[in-house]
Amino acid sequence: MRASQRSQRSRRPGAGAGGHPAGNLPLELNAFVGRSAELSQLGTALDAARLVTVTGPGGVGKSRLAARAAAGSRPRDGVWLVELAAVRDPELVEYAVVEALGLTDHTSRPPRRVLLEHLAERRVLLVVDGFEHLVDACASLVGDLLRRSAGLRVLAVGRRPLSVDGERVFPLAPLSEPEAAELFADRAAAGAPQFALDDGNRADVHEICRRLDGVPLAVELAAGRLRALSPAQLLARLDDRFRLLTGGGRDMLPRHRTLRTAIGWSHELCTPRERLLWARLSVFAGPFDLEAVEYVCGGGGLRPDNILDVLGELLAQSVVTREETPAGARYRMLDTVRSYGADWLEAMGDAARLRRRHRDWYLGLATWGELDWFSPRQREVAARVEAELPNLRHALEHCLSEPDGGHLGQYLAGTLWYYWVGCGRLSEGRHWLERSVGLETGHERSRLKALWVLGYVAVLQGDSVPALAALDECRQRAELSGNATALAYAEHRTGCLALVTDDMLRAETLLRSALERYHEIGELNSNVLMGQVELGMALAFQGDLPGAVRLCEEVRRVCVDHGERWALAYALYVLAYAAWTEGDLPGARRLLAECLDTTHVFHDLLGTVLAVELLALVTVSEGDAGEAAVLQGSAASMWPSVGLPLFGSAHYNAPHELCEATAREQLGDERYEECVRAGARLGLRAAVGRALGHSRQRAPGTSCGQRGGAVPPDMREPAASPTHRGGEATG
Predict the structure, then answer these.
(1) Which of 471, 542, 478, 475 is nearest to 506 (CA)?
(2) Residue 592: phi, psi to the nearest 5?
(3) Which positions ≥6 away from 381 have C-beta within 8 Å?
(4) Closest Cα partner for 619 from 545, 682, 697?
(5) Which of 47, 273, 605, 663 has a CA-to-CA distance to 257 between 20 and 30 Å?
(6) How much is the pTM?
(7) Backbone angles phi, psi at 80, to 5 degrees
(8) Which of 247-251, 336-340, 454-458 has the highest mean pLDDT?
(9) pLDDT of 658-668, one tens digit each?
(10) What sign results for the dihedral spanned by CA atoms 610, 613, 617, 620?
(11) What sections of 272-350 are H helices per DSSP?
């Protein structure tokens, strides 16, 4: 029933099925038919073994059964689904699991280490679906996680076992004939409300299900045809197509041949235009939208203005499914259906051209996102690129694997800087950037962009040696080629590196020079504004807080004019600190609430934890030591995914230490530690919700009076490295 799982579902991030407090298991939107015995047996297997793998041919219903069984379990920390069907690179398996668990990590730590640390003390059921093309990488990861995470259980779903020690294999057979007929009737009635299983059609329906061998995907595809055919007509055509499409080697499993026959029969019932679109749609990885279909698949027998009608017919036949996402309506193909279409596309000799068109569309999408990032559409860009990540990965892989596509891969990896940096994807961004700059393509402009973005990402991860190497190479090559834009960015990010390694005079010099270069070439975007914020930080660290405020107020005005939110959040953080030093506690809280709301929406964990830390200081200054300690505890639980707590910086640590000392004095050590532990138990979502909730309650009526004797730290003291081994600098 994999077809019905992927075609009829709705995602609810952060909440699992069955009322789980955490998880991402899809909700069921259509009936779960039959399988009561298998469901009970699978539940027993999950109780007895920490790794259970549901195996069987494509379309037999493995995913749907696993999801239903997982929904019935209640691990303390939730059920999390990892879908690997759209992942092609074995190196990205660990990133996919990190993504599915909703983790944000800005450090240079390997993703496996991030997973091990996250799962160490948690009780989680991980459902890993569609791993068969990545079996070695998946087996390695699952085995390692199970050996080192005592509270973890894994329910794997694939066409073969993982062959990991302790694995219990659960082979799934097709449906019995009565259950298959029940499924057929349910799905047929959903698409053709006039249909009902009765004595007049019962024999034909049972014969159809028997001919389809009870394979759920085949049954559902057949049921989708009742919009146009009666069961008797369907049975007659099915009989013809079985004789026609019995391909596949003798060594193939009979059920595999049966499924291919069922899909081939559905394919044959399509019109020539529908079959052509089916084949062309196979170039997409994961969901896609109508605009992409019109560009990539149009032409050569499919006019763009006819695409919607043809796509509508494929939707009606369950070849394509529709889903609602934060980025709007999107479409997807079942993996088995996509694979069948890909075979036809190769046979037509058109696969290479379609892959190029797919690549070109997503190059354009990334370019649009970069331009619109500096606009009121920033959140729309973030949602759109997030939804398109499987296709962007596919395009990157295509570019970096083609002999003449390396420069396009460099351009695409570099152009996506706003996603890698602004939406918490530093680790994956670095993966693609390092691959791209490892190629000598002869296209200097694309390489220079990838180099400065790689340097930027490495700076934010606290990896200063490779950051400096990339930025130095970028600067030298930019000077030789006369590329003023790349030179400005290289100088800017080298200044950022100086800032986070405490060379404030050099940071100020480089950042001022970079801003002048930006002005000379007419560059104005989020990067330029972040340069101003970073210069403001360098001034503040040298004791010029008024100068820092002037710079950040200017950034604030420009951001408001252009609808920019991400860079604005960091400017608000600096302004909130200034408001606290002046005793304006309500003002500081309002600024931090706006900052935190934005950084959390963009999944920017660094901005989030910085805002929570400063909110703790504001809170203790208002006289609520207990809540301040809770906030400090929640911040402490976030820092391991960012880097060294408070960057190891004397300047960032001074407010933290002042907050802690004041809270300990008012609460006593025992009560303070109790509150910190309570905060540490909060998850990210709960911690942010608590911080924002308290801010909204307090801000209107909080007095601007006493701050409990708090004195701002001396900004002229030298600071330790803000990003030593893993932190992320501002922006």
Answers:
(1) 542
(2) -70, -35
(3) 368, 369, 372, 373, 418
(4) 697
(5) 273
(6) 0.82
(7) -125, 125
(8) 454-458
(9) 999 999 999 99
(10) positive
(11) 272-281, 290-297, 307-316, 335-348
